[in-house]
TrEMBL record:
GO terms for molecular function: kinase activity. It comes from Flavimaribacter sediminis. Keywords: Kinase, Transferase. InterPro entries: Carb_kinase_PfkB-like (IPR052700), Carboh/pur_kinase_PfkB_CS (IPR002173), PfkB_dom (IPR011611), Ribokinase-like (IPR029056). This is Adenosine kinase. The keyword Transferase applies. Residues 57-316 form the Carbohydrate kinase PfkB domain. It comes from the Bacteria.
Length: 341
């Protein structure tokens, strides 16, 4: 297989997105601005209480893969769906966006994963996720030729919940590094960090993971410190490259002693923060795997994140490649040499 830019590995989830008031979250015991894992019965209950909703393929790493493809990059995805209605929707959506996706579908129970996402007036999203078929992703789903072909393999911290997925990630890291490739992860959620802090740190310190994406809350949670500066310094010490997003305050790219501050783009209206971190990672990794400077990578990430929060849903509705060209972030070709000294 010819080179791929980014392989994304994660939970293949169909998002069901609806607006609600903060009082709805309180009444239904939903933790705001977090990802809450739920069982099938809870999923049915929340679905029955939702208002008008939009169904869209999602999942953190799947969103990143779609973002890379929208920039014009070559992306692939590993994730498990069932051979059911929602699984068909997911396969169609991600392939139609130009992402290579060949993971074999489950023939029987459990069904394709779904996440009920409630968006409050401030744009925050509260996710309630039934993992379904996602828990069946395992080492047998790793396509070694795709891992070897990808310049960077990227996985979501959420994937650490299904136990067999850990084996798949470890196998991917082994294949990637044997082929001179890099491994990347996103910490995903402060609650996810709380569950797997020691394991995440071991992945970084043991060399399984080279590049880490986190928002400021996740970074602080990882090191159990009140200081963002301390968390950034420790992240840069524990991995080769760290990227910390800060919402409207932009982002920080940290490598060894180097710190690059990237501003957020100006937006017209905050509509829905779903997918902001996923699309930032897409822009950054697209730039990184196409020879752009770290500063350029940060600006591409900021652009993608800023655009996606002005729409409902986590997948870009307009061409990110064209948006980058329009803003002078790309001339339609990758010409910059990546500074990796």
């Amino acid at each position: 297989m010819s080179d791929l830019d980014v392989l994304c590995i994660g939970n293949a989830i169909v998002d069901i997105i609806a607006r609600c008031e903060d009082s709805f979250l309180i009444e239904n015991d939903i933790t705001k601005a977090a990802m809450n894992l739920i069982d099938a019965d809870r999923a049915e209950l929340l679905y029955s209480r939702m208002g008008p909703a939009i169904e869209a393929s999602g999942g953190s790493a799947g969103n990143t893969a779609a973002g890379v493809a929208s920039f014009g990059g070559k992306a692939a995805f590993f994730g498990k769906v069932a051979d059911d209605h929602l699984g068909g929707i997911y396969r169609h959506d991600i392939r139609s966006q130009g992402v290579v996706f060949g993971t074999e579908a489950l023939k029987d129970y459990p069904p394709t994963a779904r996440s009920m996402i409630f968006v409050t007036p401030d744009g925050e999203r509260s996710m309630n996720t039934y993992l379904g078929a996602c828990v069946e992703l395992g080492p047998e789903d790793v396509e070694a030729d795709i891992v070897a072909a990808a310049k960077v393999s990227y996985f979501e911290g959420y994937l650490w919940d299904p136990p067999r997925a850990k084996e798949a990630i470890v196998l991917c890291a082994k294949i990637a590094h044997e082929n001179g490739r890099e491994m990347s992860m996103t910490l995903s959620d402060p609650f996810c960090v709380d569950r797997y802090r020691d394991e995440f740190l071991e992945l970084m310190r043991g060399g399984a993971v080279d590049i880490v994406f986190a928002n400021e809350h996740e970074a602080i949670s990882l090191y159990q410190t009140a200081s963002l500066e301390t968390a950034v310094d420790l992240l840069a010490q524990d991995c080769s490259l760290a990227v910390i997003t800060r919402g409207e305050n932009g982002s920080i790219v940290a490598r060894k002693e180097e710190r690059i501050i990237i501003p957020a783009i100006e937006i017209n209206e905050l509509v829905d923060t779903t997918g902001a971190g996923d699309l930032y990672a897409a822009g950054f990794l697209y730039g990184y795997t196409n020879g752009r400077t770290l500063e350029d990578c940060g600006h591409l990430g900021s652009l993608a994140a800023g655009l996606v929060i002005q729409q409902i849903g986590p997948r870009p509705m307009l061409s990110l490649r064209q948006a980058a060209i329009d803003r002078g972030l790309s001339d339609g070709a990758s010409t910059d040499a990546r500074d990796r000294a």
